[in-house]
Each structure stands twice: as structure tokens, then as C-alpha cells.
Amino acid sequence: xxxxxxxxxxxxxxxxxxxxxxxxxxxxxxxxxxxxxxxxxxxxxxxxxxxxxxxxxxxxxxxxxxxxxxxxxxxxxxxxxxxxxxxxxxxxxxxxxxxxxxxxxxxxxxxxxxxxxxxxxxxxxxxxxxxxxxxxxxxxxxxxxxxxxxxxxxxxxxxxxxxxxxxxxxxxxxxxxxxxxxxxxxxxxxxxxxxxxxxxxxxxxxxxxxxxxxxxxxxxxxxxxxxxxxxxxxxxxxxxxxxxxxxxxxxxxxxxxxxxxxxxxxxxxxxxxxxxxxxxxxxxxxxxxxxxxxxxxxxxxxxxxx
Length: 306
Description:
Layout: H1 2-13, H2 31-37, H3 47-53, E1 61-63, H4 64-81, E2 95-100, E3 108-111, E4 117-120, E5 124-127, H5 133-144, E6 153-158, E7 179-184, E8 193-195, H6 202-209, E9 220-225, E10 234-239, H7 241-247, E11 261-264, H8 270-300
């Protein structure tokens, strides 16, 4: 009878018959293995509970499917106006070239300094930071019209100039520091800034940076600043990669925008906590045994009395 009780206890401890990530001691070591069991793994974010505890976050933290609905509306409105979805403005650090058709001596390349101004022939101090390319073009054509007949200005936004000694030229900053930043426990061979080119999606970026086995892939966060008030307002978009891979919910693969921050949290389950607590208990037990051994030795030597 005692053997049956022992077997039952071992079966419960090692999780026989229980889904992955819900066992007392054992669990699948990563999500790739968990996928093979066919059971949901990880912990989806409970937005309803978050809004109950923090009502001020309602509408700020949203799911990827909710964002896709908003994105479709934004896209339709932009197409109706004949404008791009994301308004590009020249930023500090942008590498740009200004040309005037038929005037090769007026070609200039700049990296926009922190002041936001560059110096151009006939115009002197020209503000470019914070303006759209079309605005800079119109301003220059107006200024140069005093010296040239119907000047046609061309403005190019460049990647960082190529350097032959550079071993990894594809890691250059491009499009004026409009980077996507990846934080958390992402793995990367180089660095975690992805140059925005307009085609990046969440899966595209995670494929470059790498998703480690202990990532909480059901709670990938994309933090996006508000376009009109970027210093005070933002949105947090929660993406569930279990739904993407197991249910083919492609809405989780949201299109990214310039300046997005992708945060990958660490998976942390009850059994992870168990093993950390158990390690702590073992250290205490070890310390106790060490103290007892020292006390026994001192008693034998006659230096310590009860």
C-alpha cells in the first residue's frame, strides 16, 4: 500500500497527465517543446483585471486585434487624403542630401546636428529638423527663386554613408534615426535597434533579434508614442504569439511604426518560483548544518559549553 501511495505522489509531483507549465516540479523547458503537446502555454495578459485595478489605463493598454481595427481605420483615412499612414519628419541625426536640378555645385549632404539647422548656399541657416521633406523642398525653392529661374529642389534621405572598412554595413542607421528598439530578454548577435524602413512587423523584428526559450511570448508589448503628444501620451499593444503560431491569428503580427519599443518579458511560472524558493531553503539548511558542525567541533575542543 505504501508503494502505491509513493507512486501516486511521484506522478503528481512530476506532472503525469497535466498540461505543460502546470506541473508541480517538471515542465517543458521551452515553448517549442510545449507546442508539441498541443496545450496552451504561458500566461495571457488579463487586461480586464488590469483596468479594474488601474482604471486610468483603460484604452491605453489594448490587444493586437483591437489595434488592427484602429489601424485599418487609420489606413483608410490616410488613403482617402492621399497621405502616408506615418508622417515622416526629419529628425536630429538624419543623413540627407539636397540637390538642385541643373546646378551640380549646389549639391550638399548633411547629418542634421542637435541644433536642427544646416547651412546651405544662398540661404545660410536653414531649419530642417521637425519638418516634412516637402516643407523643406518648398522653402528652399522659394528662397532660391531669387537667384535661379524656377529652381527644382530634390531632397534625399540617406542611410549612413558606406565605409569600406565597416565589417557589417547592413547594421547602419537609416532613415534619420527612426529606429525600432527591442528591450527585455531578446537575443541579438549585434544590438537591439532595428532601422525602420516601412516594412517591419512584429514577427519580422523578432526574427532578427531572436526569441529565447524563457520569453513570455503571450505578453509581448509594443509601446508606441502618441503622434501628436509624444512626450505625454502612448499606447501599449499586447501581442500573443501563442495565438499567432497555434491558431494562425495573424492579427498578432502587427505592423510597427518608427520609434516603437518592443518589450519581451521573461516567463515566470509557479514552478520557477518553487525552484527559486527551494534553492533559498537549501542555502538556509546548508548554513544551519555548517553552524551545527562548528559548534560540535568547538564543544569537542572544550572552547564552547552548553
